[in-house]
Amino acid sequence: MHELSITQSVVDAVCERAAGRPVQVVNVRVGILTAVVPDAMRFCFDLVTAGTVAEGARLEIDQPAGAGHCRACDTEFTLADLILLCPCGSADVDITSGQELQIISMKVG
């Protein structure tokens, strides 16, 4: 479960930036192509925030869809998973969205 290590890194960064102030909300962007399961991340968040300034904080997850650009036919298309094939059949694809893994904001009290 890689969600645990990812969530631990997020909480470490949030707690460091909070500088002792209680954290109320953490907003993250986790693209669908990262293979991070939002429910697993929420579960891990509750575990790793225990005893920190982020204990009891709410985790809000924005999960942008995957998107790609085909260099062969110059088409933009949606990617539901990491099978990088354009509808035209080409595998000459650039991922343009869906791999994000970012802390967007946090609210401290």
TrEMBL record:
Keywords: Metal-binding, Nickel, Zinc. Involved in the maturation of [NiFe] hydrogenases. Required for nickel insertion into the metal center of the hydrogenase. The keyword Heme does not apply. It comes from the Bacteria. Pfam families: HypA. It comes from Streptomyces fildesensis. InterPro entries: Hydgase_Ni_incorp_HypA/HybF_CS (IPR020538), HypA/HybF (IPR000688). This is Hydrogenase maturation factor HypA. The lineage of its organism: Bacteria, Bacillati, Actinomycetota, Actinomycetes, Kitasatosporales. Belongs to the HypA/HybF family. Zn(2+) binds at residues 70, 73, 86, 88. Ni(2+) binds at residue 2.
